[in-house]
Design goal:
- The complex is a heterodimer of chains A (about 325) and B (about 240).
- Chain A has about 325 residues and is of the alpha/beta class.
- Chain A has eleven helices and 14 strands.
- In chain A, α3 crosses α4 and α4 packs across α5.
- The longest helix of chain A is centred in the C-terminal third of the chain and has 16 residues.
- Chain A is elongated, with a radius of gyration of 22 Å.
- Chain A starts with 8 loop residues before the first strand and ends with a helix.
- Chain B has one domain.
- The relative contact order of chain B is 0.14.
- In chain B, α8 runs antiparallel to α9 and α10 crosses α11.
- Chain B is about 85% helix and about 0% strand.
- The mean pLDDT of chain B is about 90.
- Chain B contains eleven helices and no strands.
- Chain B is mainly α and about 240 residues long.
- Chain B is globular, with a radius of gyration of 19 Å.
- The chains are: A alpha/beta (about 325), B mainly alpha (about 240).
Chain lengths: ~325, ~240
């Protein structure tokens, strides 16, 4: 496959406006080859908008998205060839049979007709649709329609799979099956999926982005996010000083459980985790200033995260 | 081209397997048949298709939108437009494929009226010129009417709205020669030249005038072009 090493999906400064209101604002992230990335966020957070831009359904107001190195606007056809997409409402031609629908989608995506026949057989087996080859899609139950939706998304063996709420509105047994299928696919393909169900995302994904009101508010492994949920205070501190020494000094503060040294673009940003219920801001500022480093900013970030988690967890129960 | 073909072939299959298209075809044949026999009561009937053509032009206003209303509006309603536009297919290929499918069905429908011609040649000796020219005109006019229908279908997810608006546009184009009579000078010329009727009538008389061909080809091209643009613009919202 092409360009090993560079990220499969690269999203830079993505902003999209619906009218005067931004649906997403300055969203940045990367997805590596073979990674399963979860978008987590309440409804209306900007998940679908982001996915629609990645798949090339609509161009962003600002920013740039590349899939396998191809710009989704400038080199749209090349990028789209590599993407399989399952929108939130499963788009099916209800008057077609499962096989003829898959055949049509395959032809549109440029799968050569000799390969297509074999491939349709494969995805029908993979999505366990064997008994419904000749069934009119309109007569299938919701769960089976979802499977047909997944089947069309993986039909052309895309390098990237974008699944928008893949388990919404289907019964619990089918949810389990769909999740298993996604896990299998994630072994070879790059998968981006969205959900507003926290446990689902933690089960499937290696990395989670939490989107809230159009912004990425957290990005971490599900395990670490779960820790946050259990009540860890998170303080973002911007300190100008030697990174290793600053991190060490911060770790020495009583009550600090973990310090993440600066990664990414902001060279001065340390993320300090402390035991639940402790407000260490006074202590941190004292330490930083006594060392003669510059304290640029400090912010408690647990509250907003907790609020979002609350929304997410309560939504699933209802 | 393979992708245009794929889209067209799928739509053709839908046409030939859905009741809607057959109802449209049946109504077309029944009504044009009525117009065809209308003159038979005349003591000196004329062996021509001129009444058929008159009827067909009016019926086309109602039927062409019924054929095209589904094409894009339904994709938007079902959400399949999201797949269609994220497949490695260009917007114009989608429009071209769907348009060609409707054109194929229309031609099949019009071809069935060929037995009127057959009857004329068996039982009389008609002048063939106006018949051939008339069919050419009918084809060009039908192509333009379908293009109008494509545009309105791309603008809404409601098929009824798509059909009614297309009928409205076609009626305005058809009857604009009446409006032209109400004014004088340059506006009269402009409005008069917009009329489908003005441009169609010569074909029925056996006159193939480039100006009329250009008119119908232009209407078709302009409406299809706006359809592609509308599909693109829809993405920006």
């Amino acid at each position: 496959m092409s360009n090993n090493g560079s990220p499969m999906i690269e999203v830079k400064g993505l902003t999209h406006f619906y009218g005067p209101r931004p649906a997403i604002e300055d969203v940045n992230f990367e997805v590596q080859r073979g990674e399963i990335l979860g978008f987590l966020g309440p409804n209306g957070a900007g998940k679908t908008t982001t996915m629609r831009i990645i798949t090339g359904f609509m161009p962003p107001t600002q920013g740039k998205v590349t899939v396998a190195g191809f710009d989704v606007v400038e080199q749209a056809l090349e990028a789209r060839r590599r993407v399989g997409y399952l929108p939130e409402t499963v788009p099916l031609y209800t008057e077609m049979t499962v096989t003829s629908y898959l055949k049509y989608m395959g032809t549109l995506r440029g799968v050569p007709s000799r390969k297509l026949k074999v491939r349709i057989g494969e995805v029908i087996d993979l999505c366990r649709l064997g008994d419904y080859r000749r069934t009119i899609i309109g007569k299938l139950s919701k769960g089976f329609r979802q499977r047909v939706g997944v089947a069309q998304a993986i039909l052309h063996d895309p390098e990237v799979l974008v699944l928008d709420e893949p388990t919404i509105g289907i019964d619990p047994i089918q949810v389990v099956e769909t999740r298993r299928l996604i896990q299998d696919l994630g072994k070879e393909q790059t998968v981006v999926l969205s959900s507003h169900i926290l446990p689902e995302v933690s089960m499937l994904c290696q990395r989670v982005l939490i989107i809230h009101q159009g912004h990425i508010v957290a990005e971490d492994t599900p395990q670490r996010l779960a820790q946050n949920l259990q009540g860890v205070e998170r303080i973002e501190v911007e300190v100008r000083g030697p990174a290793a020494e600053v991190a060490a000094a911060l770790r020495r503060i009583n009550g600090v459980t973990d310090v993440q040294p600066p990664t990414g673009r902001n060279r001065n940003l340390f993320i300090v985790q402390a035991r639940h219920g402790l407000d260490l801001r006074d202590e941190i500022s004292r330490v930083v200033i006594s060392q003669g480093w510059g304290l640029l900013s400090m912010r408690m970030s647990t509250m907003s995260l907790e609020e979002i988690f609350l929304k997410l967890t309560t939504r699933e129960e209802s | 081209m393979q992708r245009v073909q794929a889209v067209a072939w799928k739509e053709i299959q839908v046409y030939f397997s859905s009741p809607m298209a057959y109802i449209v075809g049946m109504i077309f044949l029944a009504l044009t048949g009525f117009f065809f026999v209308r003159d038979f009561g005349n003591p000196f009937p004329e062996a021509s298709l001129s009444s058929f053509y008159q009827g067909a032009t009016i019926i086309m206003i109602l039927l062409a939108p019924a054929l095209t209303m589904r094409l894009l509006a339904e994709e938007r309603k079902l959400g399949t437009v999201e797949l269609l536009l994220t497949a490695p297919v260009r917007d114009w290929e989608v429009v071209a494929g769907k348009y060609l499918a409707s054109l194929v069905f229309l031609m099949a429908m019009v071809a069935l009226t060929g037995y009127y011609v057959l009857l004329l040649f068996i039982f009389a000796s008609p002048d063939p010129g106006p018949i051939y020219a008339g069919y050419l005109g009918l084809f060009l006019y039908g192509a333009a009417a379908l293009a109008v229908g494509m545009l309105t279908s791309s603008l809404t997810n409601n098929q009824i709205v798509a059909a009614v608006v297309a009928m409205g546009i076609l009626l305005v184009l058809y009857f604009s020669d009446f409006a032209a009579a109400a004014v004088t000078g340059l506006p009269a010329t402009i409005i008069g030249e917009m009329s489908i009727k003005t441009h169609f009538d010569d074909f029925g008389l056996g006159v193939i005038d480039t100006k009329h061909i250009v008119y119908f080809v232009c209407v078709t091209a302009v409406f299809l072009f706006i359809t592609v643009r509308a599909l693109e613009a829809r993405r920006w919202r």
